[in-house]
Protein backbone atom coordinates (compact mmCIF):
# COMPACT_ATOMS: atom_id res chain seq x y z
CA UNK A 1 0.00 0.00 0.00
CA UNK A 2 1.49 3.32 -0.94
CA UNK A 3 -1.42 5.76 -0.98
CA UNK A 4 -1.94 9.03 0.82
CA UNK A 5 -3.81 7.48 3.73
CA UNK A 6 -1.35 4.70 4.40
CA UNK A 7 1.50 7.20 4.61
CA UNK A 8 -0.65 9.33 6.89
CA UNK A 9 -1.47 6.38 9.14
CA UNK A 10 2.14 5.30 9.25
CA UNK A 11 2.72 8.34 11.45
CA UNK A 12 0.47 6.74 14.04
CA UNK A 13 1.94 3.35 14.28
CA UNK A 14 4.08 2.41 17.19
CA UNK A 15 3.88 -1.02 18.74
CA UNK A 16 0.42 -0.38 20.02
CA UNK A 17 -2.64 -1.62 18.26
CA UNK A 18 -5.06 1.14 17.22
CA UNK A 19 -8.72 0.60 16.66
CA UNK A 20 -11.04 2.88 14.75
CA UNK A 21 -14.78 2.36 14.37
CA UNK A 22 -16.65 3.83 11.42
CA UNK A 23 -20.30 4.14 12.39
CA UNK A 24 -23.52 5.78 11.26
CA UNK A 25 -26.91 4.93 9.83
CA UNK A 26 -27.16 2.73 6.76
CA UNK A 27 -26.67 4.68 3.57
CA UNK A 28 -24.48 7.35 5.17
CA UNK A 29 -21.45 6.39 3.10
CA UNK A 30 -19.37 4.31 5.53
CA UNK A 31 -18.52 1.47 3.18
CA UNK A 32 -17.63 3.94 0.42
CA UNK A 33 -15.29 5.75 2.81
CA UNK A 34 -13.67 2.50 3.91
CA UNK A 35 -12.85 1.64 0.31
CA UNK A 36 -11.64 5.19 -0.35
CA UNK A 37 -9.03 4.80 2.34
CA UNK A 38 -7.42 2.08 0.22
CA UNK A 39 -5.21 0.86 2.99
CA UNK A 40 -5.98 -2.80 2.61
CA UNK A 41 -8.45 -5.49 1.76
CA UNK A 42 -11.97 -5.11 3.13
CA UNK A 43 -13.08 -8.27 4.90
CA UNK A 44 -16.79 -8.75 5.45
CA UNK A 45 -18.01 -10.90 8.30
CA UNK A 46 -21.50 -11.63 9.51
CA UNK A 47 -21.47 -12.72 13.15
CA UNK A 48 -24.19 -15.23 13.94
CA UNK A 49 -26.27 -12.55 15.56
CA UNK A 50 -26.70 -11.06 12.13
CA UNK A 51 -25.12 -7.69 11.64
CA UNK A 52 -22.50 -7.01 9.00
CA UNK A 53 -19.04 -6.01 10.06
CA UNK A 54 -16.49 -4.81 7.55
CA UNK A 55 -12.87 -4.80 8.62
CA UNK A 56 -9.72 -3.36 7.14
CA UNK A 57 -6.39 -3.94 8.80
CA UNK A 58 -3.38 -1.83 7.99
CA UNK A 59 -0.35 -3.03 9.97
CA UNK A 60 -1.51 -2.73 13.60
CA UNK A 61 -4.31 -0.31 12.75
CA UNK A 62 -7.76 -1.80 12.51
CA UNK A 63 -10.90 -0.20 11.05
CA UNK A 64 -14.28 -1.74 11.70
CA UNK A 65 -17.56 -0.66 10.17
CA UNK A 66 -21.18 -1.46 10.90
CA UNK A 67 -24.57 0.18 10.54
CA UNK A 68 -26.39 1.73 13.46
CA UNK A 69 -30.15 2.11 13.64
CA UNK A 70 -32.60 -0.72 13.27
CA UNK A 71 -32.81 -3.54 15.77
CA UNK A 72 -31.93 -2.59 19.30
CA UNK A 73 -31.87 -6.25 20.41
CA UNK A 74 -28.46 -6.82 18.83
CA UNK A 75 -26.93 -3.75 20.42
CA UNK A 76 -25.32 -5.66 23.34
CA UNK A 77 -23.36 -7.73 20.84
CA UNK A 78 -21.64 -4.63 19.50
CA UNK A 79 -19.69 -4.44 22.72
CA UNK A 80 -17.42 -7.24 21.55
CA UNK A 81 -16.30 -4.90 18.82
CA UNK A 82 -15.59 -1.74 20.68
CA UNK A 83 -13.22 -2.63 23.47
CA UNK A 84 -10.05 -0.58 23.19
CA UNK A 85 -11.44 1.73 20.55
CA UNK A 86 -9.24 4.77 20.00
CA UNK A 87 -11.49 6.69 17.63
CA UNK A 88 -15.00 6.75 16.25
CA UNK A 89 -15.59 8.13 12.78
CA UNK A 90 -19.26 9.00 12.71
CA UNK A 91 -20.61 9.32 9.17
CA UNK A 92 -23.78 11.30 8.46
CA UNK A 93 -25.72 11.64 5.22
CA UNK A 94 -26.02 15.43 5.20
CA UNK A 95 -29.00 15.20 2.83
CA UNK A 96 -31.03 12.87 5.02
CA UNK A 97 -32.80 15.44 7.15
CA UNK A 98 -35.60 13.02 8.04
CA UNK A 99 -33.24 10.69 9.88
CA UNK A 100 -30.97 13.29 11.46
CA UNK A 101 -32.81 12.79 14.78
CA UNK A 102 -32.28 9.03 14.69
CA UNK A 103 -28.66 9.57 13.81
CA UNK A 104 -28.30 11.87 16.81
CA UNK A 105 -29.87 9.31 19.15
CA UNK A 106 -27.60 6.56 17.89
CA UNK A 107 -24.54 8.73 18.32
CA UNK A 108 -25.54 9.76 21.83
CA UNK A 109 -26.11 6.18 22.97
CA UNK A 110 -22.86 5.07 21.43
CA UNK A 111 -20.92 7.80 23.21
CA UNK A 112 -22.45 6.76 26.53
CA UNK A 113 -20.72 3.40 26.30
CA UNK A 114 -18.04 3.12 28.96
CA UNK A 115 -15.60 1.54 26.52
CA UNK A 116 -15.87 4.52 24.20
CA UNK A 117 -15.45 7.19 26.85
CA UNK A 118 -11.92 8.04 25.79
CA UNK A 119 -12.36 7.65 22.06
CA UNK A 120 -11.70 10.62 19.81
CA UNK A 121 -14.71 11.53 17.66
CA UNK A 122 -14.48 12.55 14.02
CA UNK A 123 -17.83 13.42 12.44
CA UNK A 124 -18.05 13.39 8.67
CA UNK A 125 -20.88 15.49 7.27
CA UNK A 126 -20.91 13.39 4.12
CA UNK A 127 -22.49 13.77 0.66
CA UNK A 128 -21.48 17.42 0.39
CA UNK A 129 -21.45 17.05 -3.39
CA UNK A 130 -25.25 17.07 -3.28
CA UNK A 131 -27.06 20.41 -3.64
CA UNK A 132 -29.42 19.74 -0.74
CA UNK A 133 -26.69 18.81 1.75
CA UNK A 134 -26.86 20.52 5.12
CA UNK A 135 -23.75 22.49 6.02
CA UNK A 136 -21.43 21.00 8.65
CA UNK A 137 -22.61 23.58 11.18
CA UNK A 138 -26.22 22.53 10.60
CA UNK A 139 -25.27 18.88 10.91
CA UNK A 140 -23.36 19.69 14.08
CA UNK A 141 -26.39 21.44 15.49
CA UNK A 142 -28.71 18.59 14.52
CA UNK A 143 -26.43 16.10 16.26
CA UNK A 144 -26.03 18.29 19.33
CA UNK A 145 -22.25 18.20 19.15
CA UNK A 146 -21.80 21.40 21.13
CA UNK A 147 -22.98 19.46 24.20
CA UNK A 148 -19.79 17.39 24.09
CA UNK A 149 -17.62 18.95 26.74
CA UNK A 150 -14.91 16.48 27.62
CA UNK A 151 -14.36 14.69 24.34
CA UNK A 152 -11.86 15.52 21.63
CA UNK A 153 -14.02 15.88 18.53
CA UNK A 154 -14.34 17.68 15.22
CA UNK A 155 -16.64 17.77 12.22
CA UNK A 156 -15.60 17.93 8.57
CA UNK A 157 -17.49 18.19 5.35
CA UNK A 158 -16.78 15.26 3.07
CA UNK A 159 -17.86 13.63 -0.11
CA UNK A 160 -16.99 9.98 -0.27
CA UNK A 161 -18.05 10.17 -3.89
CA UNK A 162 -15.55 12.82 -5.00
CA UNK A 163 -13.09 12.34 -2.15
CA UNK A 164 -13.44 15.98 -1.11
CA UNK A 165 -12.60 16.67 2.51
CA UNK A 166 -11.44 13.15 3.39
CA UNK A 167 -7.76 14.08 3.54
CA UNK A 168 -8.38 16.99 5.89
CA UNK A 169 -10.63 14.90 8.09
CA UNK A 170 -8.19 12.01 8.38
CA UNK A 171 -5.29 14.36 9.00
CA UNK A 172 -7.17 15.86 11.90
CA UNK A 173 -7.82 12.36 13.23
CA UNK A 174 -4.22 11.25 13.01
CA UNK A 175 -3.10 14.40 14.84
CA UNK A 176 -5.78 13.97 17.49
CA UNK A 177 -4.74 10.36 18.04
CA UNK A 178 -1.10 11.29 18.29
CA UNK A 179 -2.02 13.82 20.94
CA UNK A 180 -3.52 11.00 22.99
CA UNK A 181 -0.25 9.18 23.36
P1 LIG B 1 -23.21 2.74 4.23
O1 LIG B 1 -22.04 1.80 4.14
O2 LIG B 1 -23.03 3.77 5.28
O3 LIG B 1 -24.51 2.04 4.34
P2 LIG B 1 -22.61 3.26 1.45
O4 LIG B 1 -23.27 3.58 2.87
O5 LIG B 1 -21.16 3.53 1.48
O6 LIG B 1 -23.05 1.94 1.01
O7 LIG B 1 -23.30 4.38 0.57
C1 LIG B 1 -24.70 4.42 0.37
C2 LIG B 1 -25.00 5.09 -0.96
O8 LIG B 1 -24.60 6.46 -0.91
C3 LIG B 1 -24.23 4.49 -2.14
O9 LIG B 1 -25.02 4.66 -3.28
C4 LIG B 1 -23.03 5.39 -2.26
O10 LIG B 1 -22.48 5.41 -3.54
C5 LIG B 1 -23.65 6.73 -1.92
N1 LIG B 1 -22.68 7.68 -1.38
C6 LIG B 1 -21.78 7.48 -0.39
N2 LIG B 1 -21.09 8.59 -0.15
C7 LIG B 1 -21.56 9.54 -0.99
C8 LIG B 1 -21.26 10.93 -1.22
O11 LIG B 1 -20.39 11.54 -0.58
N3 LIG B 1 -22.01 11.56 -2.17
C9 LIG B 1 -22.96 10.94 -2.88
N4 LIG B 1 -23.62 11.65 -3.79
N5 LIG B 1 -23.27 9.63 -2.71
C10 LIG B 1 -22.58 8.97 -1.77
P3 LIG B 1 -25.74 3.45 -4.04
O12 LIG B 1 -26.45 4.12 -5.16
O13 LIG B 1 -24.65 2.55 -4.45
O14 LIG B 1 -26.65 2.86 -3.02
MG1 LIG C 1 -22.10 -0.26 4.35
From TrEMBL:
Pfam families, A to Z: Arf (PF00025)
PROSITE patterns reported for this sequence: ARF, RAB
An annotated GO cellular component: cytoplasm
Residues the record lists as binding GTP: 24-31, 70, 126-129
Single GO BP term: intracellular protein transport
Keyword Cell inner membrane among UniProt keywords: no
Residues annotated as binding Mg(2+): 31, 48
CDD domains cross-referenced by the UniProt entry: Arl1
Recorded GO MF terms: GTP binding; GTPase activity; metal ion binding
SUPFAM superfamilies recorded: P-loop containing nucleoside triphosphate hydrolases
Keyword terms of this UniProt record: GTP-binding, Lipoprotein, Magnesium, Metal-binding, Myristate, Nucleotide-binding
Similarity field: Belongs to the small GTPase superfamily. Arf family.
Protein name (Swiss-Prot/TrEMBL): ADP-ribosylation factor-like protein 1
Taxonomic lineage from the root: Eukaryota, Choanoflagellata, Craspedida, Salpingoecidae, Monosiga
Amino acid sequence: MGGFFSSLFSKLLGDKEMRILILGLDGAGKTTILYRLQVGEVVKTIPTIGFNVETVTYKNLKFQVWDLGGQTSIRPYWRCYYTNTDAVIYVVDSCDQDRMGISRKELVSMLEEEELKKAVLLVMANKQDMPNALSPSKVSEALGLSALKTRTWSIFKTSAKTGEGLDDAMEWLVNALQGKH
